[in-house]
């Protein structure tokens, strides 16, 4: 299995642009798929430089309804007319982030794509193909820190419960890889729910862990350290970036050592 980071907040080369977003290309024995498409057409520009043909993608998974993971959707549809796009229906609700100074601003997806024929709306657990499946609606056993993110439902602004978020599982050659977008529901909650579904932990976990808002305070650092100890105990290999944040990553790295690495735009993972 080959995984290429088409978009992440940082880049390992001046050749590749970077932005606040995430897009991963995944090459399996049978399939070519994308997990998220970043915030803009940048994923496509980097894909061309990295030898990835977007028109050949079989499946696209959109992890949740925020622009930094689905902002490139229009470009994807312009370049690929065959791929099924797996997404939660709630991803097309109106999503906002709250400003510290008051008010809110939109962070959702572009309108008008929810009726597109390539869209496949997913439930709490769906199979894409043998060894390729999705799960959502993760129970909040360990409460998360306030996210500052809200959603509009029935004309009311309510705290985001991230029912629009889903996670991808890939099983190939005896290895299991779990891929998250932002892990808004909590990376520990996601792993525990996966363990309840499968009776084990994955071999590798890739994606953002949404810890950047915890950095800089004693309380936040304690939470990050606790998460790091939990992740280390799972014996999985972790590759993270995007919303994890650079400072939280450094704390995780200090605890987890070789069990965790950062993945930047342009980098590859072979599993």
Total of helices:
6
Give the CA-based shape.
Answer: globular
Helix-strand pattern, N to C? EEEHEHHEEEEEEEEEEHEHEHEE
Calculate Rg over CA atoms.
17 Å
Q: What is the helical fraction, as a range of percent?
A: 10-25%
CATH fold-level name: Metallo-beta-lactamase, Chain A
Trace the largest sheet across and list its strands.
8-5-4-3-2-1-18
Structural class: alpha/beta
What is the architecture at the second tier of CATH? 4-Layer Sandwich
Tell me, rounded to a whole number, the average pLDDT: 95
The biggest beta sheet is recorded as:
7 strands, mixed
What is this entry, summarized?
The chain is built from six helices and 18 strands.
Report on this model:
The protein is α/β, with parallel strands linked by helices. It has a single domain, classed as Ribonuclease Z/Hydroxyacylglutathione hydrolase-like (Metallo-beta-lactamase, Chain A, 4-Layer Sandwich). The chain has six helices and 18 strands. Strands 8-5-4-3-2-1-18 form a seven-stranded mixed β-sheet. α5 packs across α6 (246-256). The chain is globular and about 50 Å long. The relative contact order is 0.16. The mean pLDDT is 95.
């Amino acid at each position: 299995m080959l995984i290429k980071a088409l978009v992440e907040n940082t880049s390992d080369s001046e050749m590749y642009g970077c932005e606040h977003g995430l897009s991963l290309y995944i090459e399996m024995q049978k399939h070519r798929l994308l997990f998220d498409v970043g915030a803009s057409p940048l994923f496509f520009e980097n894909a061309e430089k990295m030898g990835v043909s977007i028109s050949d993608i079989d499946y696209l998974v959109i992890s949740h309804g925020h622009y930094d993971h689905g902002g490139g959707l229009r470009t994807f549809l312009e370049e690929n007319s065959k791929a099924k796009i797996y997404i939660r229906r709630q991803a097309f609700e109106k999503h906002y982030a709250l400003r510290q100074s008051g008010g809110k601003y939109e962070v959702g997806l572009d309108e008008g794509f929810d009726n597109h024929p390539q869209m496949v709306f997913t439930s709490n657990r769906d199979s894409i193909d043998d060894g390729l499946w999705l799960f959502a609606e993760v129970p909040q056993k360990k409460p998360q820190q306030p996210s500052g993110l809200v959603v509009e439902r029935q004309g009311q602004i309510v705290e985001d419960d991230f029912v629009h978020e889903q996670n991808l599982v890939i099983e190939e050659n005896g290895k299991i890889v779990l891929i998250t977008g932002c892990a808004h529901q909590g990376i520990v909650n996601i792993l525990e729910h996966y363990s309840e579904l499968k009776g084990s932990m994955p071999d590798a976990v890739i994606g953002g862990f949404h810890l950047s808002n915890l950095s800089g305070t004693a309380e936040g650092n304690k939470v990050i350290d606790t998460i790091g100890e939990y992740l280390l105990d799972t014996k999985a290999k972790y590759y993270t970036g995007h919303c994890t944040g650079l400072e939280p990553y450094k704390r995780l790295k200090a605890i987890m050592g070789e069990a965790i690495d950062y993945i930047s735009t342009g980098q590859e993972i072979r599993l």
